[in-house]
Specification:
about 120 residues, single chain, about 0% helix, four-stranded antiparallel beta sheet, mainly beta
């Protein structure tokens, strides 16, 4: 199974930016980002197709976050701008064979946005 390793998390002030990276050990098809805050269920953030031509975002991040990928590097990115305290969560990278189905997960990276 392809291994997924996230990086780029950290502490940032509200209004700031962070870019998360997810390096895969092999080829992946659809890739996505999810997040989970304490006491809440894991929620979808964004996903991207193999070609990069199809992207989908949660309404809560639309216009602020951008997902992209570099297939030559087997890496997917999440550029996060205009961060809000409610974006604080552990962010997980995910891979899947089709559509919105994901069956392979990274260990997560913490993002904390201070007010």
């Amino acid at each position: 199974q392809v291994q997924l390793v996230e990086s780029g998390g950290g502490l940032v002030q509200a209004g700031g930016s962070l870019t998360l990276s997810c390096a895969a050990s092999g080829r992946t098809v659809n890739m996505g980002w999810f997040r989970q805050s304490p006491g809440k269920e894991r929620e979808f953030v964004a996903r991207i197709s193999w070609s990069g031509g199809n992207t989908v975002y949660a309404d809560s991040v639309k216009g602020r976050f951008t997902i992209s990928r570099d297939n030559a590097k087997n890496t997917v990115y999440l550029q996060m701008n205009s961060l809000k305290p409610e974006d604080t969560a552990v962010y997980y990278c995910a891979a899947g064979p089709v559509g919105s189905y994901f069956n392979n997960w990274g260990q997560g990276t913490q993002v904390t946005v201070s007010s």
